[in-house]
Design goal:
With 193 residues, the chain is an all-alpha fold. It has a single domain, classed as Up-down Bundle (Four Helix Bundle (Hemerythrin (Met), subunit A)), CATH 1.20.120.1760. It has seven helices and no strands. α3 runs antiparallel to α6. The longest helix is centred in the C-terminal third of the chain and has 28 residues. It is flat. The protein starts with a helix and ends with a helix.
């Protein structure tokens, strides 16, 4: 919902350092894998209930995730890089609730609800792109209530206030389901056109 606003504020700073990062030998794909490593480490620390480290490692993950895009823009984006970035981002977002409840089993039942909502939301996202390709419609941002920024805020809130995980997860699952619904309506409009 607020990705575009934040992207306009953050991207110029990342774009400024991207050429130097690329010259150091860190490719966009290496940065993506670094982001994945930090993100999964954050999940591991959440499973151990070491939430301050989970918070720090997750922030580092998101920094490298932003930097990979800046380096890709400066050196040339590739389809493999786009796939890797999307796949690794979602792997971290999906792993977090699973790992979190390993360290806090009292929140067990909220994690599957959240993961179910993720699946529906991402399914609608991918189907929108598929049908946009098939119909020749523009493939711009699909939008919705939940995008990357909201996912990041959810995870950071859980690290800061771990006892609130179940409430955060259920509320966030409702936001994800609403996003899936909005995206499904866009697909239906696209197919009726």
């Amino acid at each position: 919902m607020i990705d575009a606003l934040l992207r306009n504020k953050i991207t110029p700073h990342l774009d400024r350092i991207a050429p130097r990062v690329a010259q150091s030998g860190l490719t966009a794909n290496k940065l993506t894998l670094l982001a994945l490593g930090f993100g999964l480490s954050a999940c591991f620390f959440a499973a151990l209930a070491i939430y301050p480290l989970a918070f720090v490692f997750f922030l580092a993950s998101r920094f490298f995730d932003g930097l990979d895009g800046a380096v890709a823009r400066s050196t040339g984006e590739t389809n493999l890089g786009s796939f890797l970035d999307f796949f690794c981002d979602f792997a971290v977002f999906a792993a977090f609730p699973l790992f979190f409840v390993m360290g806090a089993p009292e929140h067990f039942w909220s994690a599957p609800v959240l993961l179910f909502s993720y699946v529906l939301m991402m399914n609608a996202y991918l189907l929108h792109h598929l049908f946009a390709l098939r119909t020749g419609a523009p493939q711009g941002a699909v939008g919705g209530i939940v995008e990357n920024t909201e996912m990041i805020v959810f995870i950071l809130l859980c690290c800061l206030f771990p006892m609130g995980f179940s409430a955060f997860a259920i509320f966030f699952a409702l936001m994800c389901l609403a996003t899936a619904g909005l995206r499904t309506l866009k697909i239906i409009q696209l197919l009726k056109a």
